[in-house]
Write a structure and sequence with these properties.
There is one protein chain. This protein is α+β, with helices and mostly antiparallel strands. The chain has two domains: about 150 residues, Leucine-rich Repeat Variant, CATH 1.25.10.10; about 90 residues, Roll (PH-domain like). Helix 4 runs antiparallel to helix 5 and helix 7 runs parallel beside helix 9. The longest helix has 15 residues.
Length: about 280
């Protein structure tokens, strides 16, 4: 019984955590997102597609003749840390004379490659077009940390003649947008299990989509103490806290996901979900 229920959960998670699987499905998901009225992808869109989206994204970029699509796809490339993205973007930067396109390409290059992009992008801090210099410096400030980035920006501030450009750069916050990794990522320590997990609440009667919020009460709790506070939100219902019955929190990790399982020891109820 539980085996069948878990197999059905795996199927449900394929739609919960990722938009698509096959190249055609990924392409359809990207086209659907681009067709929406908002100019930017929805939050977490690229990370939910996962690393399998990268070859599709690169192919779509090479095939497109639409400046709108290319601009949108360039933004997407910035979320992938694979070195092939850096090679593609550097080639495109060198080939274009369009300042608007160039600054977007530079932004995505630095977002994608981080410190590895500094040697290439530093040249564009001296570009004749002020907006290209501005976008390059802002991206370095946003996405790169460390001595090399600090030294490059210090030299840039000394040489930049346009005061308004320097002021804009210095007002730029550090974003550190998470990139889609192409390799395994590290496991979460127990202290990082706190927060929201999106998944399903399962009983012997039914399976319901749910959100679990975990709060660590005491890292050194004894078996007689409650270690975690667990609150579950079901559709159209208020949040309820699991109380009065002992439960255990189990963490495990697959190649691209963090999973939490919350088991109630006194009945046949379980929550299973992924990091939201």
């Amino acid at each position: 019984m539980w085996l069948c229920r878990y197999l059905s959960l795996l199927f449900l998670f394929s739609s919960l955590q990722a938009y698509a699987g096959t190249p055609d499905e990924i392409r359809s998901a990207i086209k659907s997102e681009m067709s929406q009225r908002h100019p930017e992808p929805s939050e977490g869109f690229w990370s939910k597609l996962g690393p399998e989206a990268l070859p599709v994204l690169k192919q779509m970029y090479s095939e497109s003749d639409s400046s709108f699509e290319k601009s949108w796809l360039i933004d997407g490339l910035g979320y992938f840390s694979d070195p092939s993205v850096g090679e593609l973007l550097e080639k495109e930067i060198e080939a274009t004379t369009n300042a608007i396109l160039k600054k977007k390409l530079l932004h995505s290059l630095i977002q994608s490659q981080g410190e590895a992009a500094l040697g290439f992008s530093e040249t564009y801090l001296k570009d004749p077009e002020a907006h290209v210099r501005l976008e390059t410096a802002r991206a370095i400030r946003q996405y790169v940390t460390g001595k090399n980035a600090d030294e490059i920006l210090a030299r840039y501030y000394e040489n930049e003649k346009a005061t308004w450009v320097k002021d804009e750069v210095k007002r730029t916050p550090s974003l550190r947008v998470a990139k889609v990794a192409t390799a395994d990522f590290p496991a979460l320590p127990e202290s990082a299990w706190t927060g929201q997990w999106e998944g399903f609440y399962v009983s012997s009667e039914k399976t319901t989509r749910a959100t679990l919020t975990l709060t660590l009460l005491s890292a050194s709790a004894t078996p007689l103490q409650q270690k975690w506070k667990a609150e579950i939100k079901l559709p159209k219902l208020s949040v309820f806290e699991i109380k009065g019955k002992p439960f255990e929190v189990i963490y495990y990790q697959s190649k691209q996901r963090h999973w939490i399982e919350l088991r109630n020891k006194m009945d046949d109820r379980v929550f299973i979900g992924v990091r939201k």
